[in-house]
Amino acid sequence: MQNHHSDCNRPLADASIIACPHCDLLQRIPEVEPGAAVRCPRCDKELWRHRRDSFNRTFALTVAAIILYIVANTVPMLGLNAVGREAFTTVTGGAEKLWINGHQIVAVLVLFTAVISPALQIGFLFLILIGCARRRPPAWVGLLLRHINFTRTWSMIEVMLLGVLVSLTKIAEYATVIPGFALFCLFALVFLLAAMQSCFDPHEVWSRVEWAEEEARNIQ
Hints:
By secondary structure, the chain is of the alpha+beta class. Helices cover 59% and strands 12% of the residues. The strands form 3 sheets. A 3-stranded antiparallel sheet has the order 6-5-7. It has a two-stranded antiparallel sheet with strand order 1-2.
């Protein structure tokens, strides 16, 4: 992906108008070099920072997140050993047990926040990066970028893990808890998702999409 992304890591065009979240001043993002920050001329608050090598870093983290996500949802997350019997379950298996035991709302929330939303967040970002690797990003790149914040808001793997840890402290008094490989993958995935969000530069994507749209209009 290095060669495809190299042309994306250029200084940004004067592409978008933003409002300062502190003083509401409308302004355009000027052209800045990688690593430089854009500050509000009125209140001097930092509006945006052009992250260095954003595309390549985000792409590498996204690929790693895809691998961890697949492993975390296909191998056992936890096991219990009680009275000589062992039972293991996956994340989706746990949601299924909740549904069977009459906790349908909790099961749906677990499935949506710990399985579906993270998958959409990772998948959308992967497709956005693949689309922006092309000379002319397709129109669906902008559409996915508009919806990725929704998936990020509902992606709550860390909340599920916190609930699991609290439950384990109580269950440990009655049974032996066996942590599965998926549990460690989920912990790593939480940090990867945070790193993806930190490295990803949506302003750079928007400038790339708008630049391609403007070029297409000029050709026509």
